[in-house]
Amino acid sequence: VIVSGQGGMADGKVVGGGVVQKAPVTLEQGALVVEAVRIPHSGWPTRQQQVENIAFRVTLDAATTVVHLGDADTSDAHFARDDAYWRRRRTHVAFPPYWFFMSDGGRQVLERRIAPVRSIGLHVPTNVPSRADRREPELRGHDLFTVPGEVRNIR
How many angstroms separate the CA atoms of 63 and 96, rounded? Predict the structure, then answer.
């Protein structure tokens, strides 16, 4: 097992608004690479400051990379400070929270920072229809997990 990072997640630096930003961490074992980086929880800076959100990037066989953003805030500033990290690997599938599709900031992060081949929205409220043509306009053109147990092929 190889663990690396710019000082590890135990080390941090103070950034705007007094938020402590931790460096990305990488764990490698065989054909699996798991990376983690802290991104403030949605609602930052006024809500959820006490809740830690970690985005994970997982690469298998140096061939397929997926990113799970958890409940990340959509501000590009959170992603811009680790720009080299986001550009280091091509993301095949991103799993952002659905609200990334509903804001300019979230769409910018997906398009300019993470740049996935495909995105599938998570944490979708139960009142969002499965049929895209019945959704709010901002969500119509996006793939969303709307039914518990849904499955997507990522290769």
Answer: 21
DSSP string computed for 22-79: EPPEEEEETTEEEEEEE-PBTTTTTS-TTS--EEEEEEETTTEEEEE-TTB---HHHH
**Global confidence as pTM:** 0.84
| pLDDT tens sequence across 62-90 | 999 999 999 999 999 999 988 999 999 99
67: nearest Cα among 76, 54, 78, 80: 54
Q: For the residues of 3-15, what is the DSSP string, one character each?
A: EEESS-TT-EEEE
Alpha carbon distance 89, 84 (integer Å): 9
153 burial via Cβ count (<10 Å: 0-12, 13-18, 19+): exposed
